[in-house]
Amino acid sequence: MESWGHSGFAIVEFKNDWAGFENAMSCAKSFEVDHFGKRDFYAAKNRGDKLFGWMAHKDDYDSRCPIGLYLRKKTDVKTISAIEAEDQRKALTLVSNLTNNLEMKTSHLEEMWNKYQEAGTSLSKLMGQKEEMLKAYNEETRKMQQDTRNHFENILKEHQEVSMHLEAQKKRLEQVEEQLRQREAQNETERRKLHDEKNMREKENLHRKIIELEKKLDAKQALELEVEA
């Protein structure tokens, strides 16, 4: 609201849109219904402390009173058709801007979609390559594990064969050792037997020689006795 000291005038501003215009019209209409409108103001001879009100028009805008000075300084006069034309122009501008923005966003979305499609294709290709690499890796790992298992199985088999061979050799050596012990014992028995037989033969020969010597001695003594007789 704008007022000028004791001039008795005050200006109430409404929003500069159709809602503000309708509110201003309603306000002015209420004053006219109660006979406190613009024509009532200028026709009244004794206004007293009554409150009059109206919506400013072009004659108020062009007047030299404080109201006209304020209106020319703060506002401009527009007809309804001009306001409608301006609103239409603004609406067309808004539609044009929205259309341009929509086209730009559509173009941007199409570009993003194309990039997404390209990325999806590349991703699918990479996933395929990854699956192939993973498959090859798993196959190589399985082959290495199988080769390692076969290698250890061969080592274990060779170890078992060597152990069996060594065990067989050990048994054969034990058998040979036992045979040698038995043969040595047999040889010792035979040596003792031969030694005993040799001693016996020697004793027999010695005994026979002794007997022969005794016979010779007896014969000699007998001969000597015969000679003495």
TrEMBL record:
XS domain location is 4-63
Annotated segments matching region Disordered: 177-203
Any single Pfam family the record assigns to this protein: XS
The protein's matches in Gene3D superfamilies, at most eight in alphabetical order, are given as: XS domain
InterPro entries listed in its UniProt record: FDM1-5/IDN2, XS_domain, XS_domain_sf
Might you name a Gene Ontology BP term for this protein?
gene silencing by siRNA-directed DNA methylation
Source organism superkingdom: Eukaryota
Descriptive protein name? XS domain-containing protein
The record lists the organism as Morella rubra
